[in-house]
Amino acid sequence: MALVGVTDIVARLDPQPGPETYDRIGILIDDAEEKIRRAFLKEGRFFDSEVLVTPWLDGEAKDVIREMVSAAIIIGPNAGVRSASSTTGPQSDSVTYADVGAVTFSGVRLADAQKEALGLFVGAYPRGDFPAVKPWPEWESR
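Above: the chain's sequence. Below: its structure in token form.
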């Protein structure tokens, strides 16, 4: 069940990518949807079921997929580049890489802000229903 099509992505980008990139955009859309489904599964939830019963989730998922794919297309081969410089004189090039949270070298990335928008947990939260702590025995005798 594709939530976003290639034309949805292409229509929102400026400058618009050429038809030669449509196959890659389709692959990135599939990757983004798979990452979202996997994130839901890691929390013991099923994305396809929740989309049907949660009215806002469909729209949020479309927005997140568009963001993920657009970032990968716009940044392209410059994933992780923080700065680049070039000198024409006796040929000098320099590229500095940094850990950028929007994309990976292989394509799309589901960032924490996007997980939060989808209603997924971000960070460390308790995952159990534990009983209340029992008091010290000497407190029960009072």
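The longest strand covers residues 81-87.
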